[in-house]
Amino acid sequence: xxxxxxxxxxxxxxxxxxxxxxxxxxxxxxxxxxxxxxxxxxxxxxxxxxxxxxxxxxxxxxxxxxxxxxxxxxxxxxxxxxxxxxxxxxxxxxxxxxxxxxxxxxxxxxxxxxxxxxxxxxxxxxxxxxxxxxxxxxxxxxxxxxxxxxxxxxxxxxxxxxxxxxxxxxxxxxxxxxxxxxxxxxxxxxxxxxxxxxxxxxxxxxxxxxx
Length: 211
Known about the structure:
Elements: H1 2-9, E1 13-18, E2 23-26, H2 28-34, H3 38-41, H4 56-69, E3 71-79, E4 85-96, E5 102-111, H5 113-127, H6 137-154, E6 162-164, H7 168-175, H8 177-193, E7 202-205, E8 208-210
Antiparallel strand pairs: 1-2, 1-5, 3-4, 4-5, 6-8, 7-8
Helix pairs in contact: 7-8
């Protein structure tokens, strides 16, 4: 009774299948996460949730771990009933009977959409200037190393231009920093419109830019 109660009230999504992969039971958290009613999903194969983002080799490795170690866990992308693709953390374990044969599979999963959005936001903050949206010094140096290596490998030249804004301090002092910020944003847009899509425009800091 305790296990049954936990199965229903936990916020993690539970799925129980037989050895052939047919779904025998799901809890309310799974219904909420995947968007399928219980009656719709019972008897189905978990393949119905596939997002198409993973290769055949990904699933082969998953099942190899399950058969050899009795457990697999990792990040996976699935598809809700409405077609939305979402990331989740999935843990699958085998259930063994008295004869040491696999009887069931039990999967426990958590929607990590919020975590992925936070990771993406932090990654953007780490590599892009928050004011202009241009690559920052860190990302510029990374791209420069890559482009220098490519130029050397292919025997081509690489153009590099450093620039700053004359009289920018006077703008900040006389009109205020909000106006100075708008000026930097405008300059960033003009620089972006002046180069090719394959080029990089970065803000190194203050009124210093590099192309």
